[in-house]
Design brief:
alpha+beta, six-stranded mixed beta sheet, 4 helices, 26% helix, globular
Length: 138
């Protein structure tokens, strides 16, 4: 089963409070409780995965947590994963006005990148902010 085929899938690019997976094509899968609990109860969607890191790296899904006061956390496989990064940018750009600051974390580096809505205005601004280097394209 794919994320889009899941009966739990929300309309693409849905920005919702709480935890979600952001899968290919902007499919949003809500996590009503804890990530690890969701993973155990959905082995057909995330086969072989036992934790958040497994899903992010193996499935290349973005872990999204939307908190109060416009704060968002996103976890992606790495800065070199253009598709996941573009999915993050699109997700945040479509939700302009619903968030004020986001932290983008990667599985391949320590630390985070702080984002503000203007960073998602277009691919160039986003790439400049996350520092992927010259020649990288989303």
């Amino acid at each position: 089963m794919t994320a889009a085929e899941s009966p739990d899938a929300l309309p693409p690019w849905t920005f919702r409070h709480g935890a979600s997976w952001l899968a290919e094509g902007g499919v949003v899968l809500p996590i009503p409780g804890f990530h690890d609990e969701w993973i155990r109860s959905h082995p057909d969607l995330v086969p072989g995965c036992s934790n958040v890191c497994d899903v992010v790296v193996r499935k290349r899904w973005v872990s999204v947590s939307v908190f109060s006061e416009g704060y968002v956390e996103l976890l992606v496989p790495g800065r070199g994963d253009g598709e996941s990064l573009d999915r993050c940018r699109e997700f945040l750009a479509r939700a302009a006005g619903a968030w004020t600051h986001a932290l983008l974390m990667t599985m391949d580096e320590e630390g985070y990148i702080r984002l503000v809505p203007s960073d998602t205005a277009g691919p160039e601004a986003f790439l400049e902010r996350i520092g992927t280097g010259a020649g990288f394209r989303l």
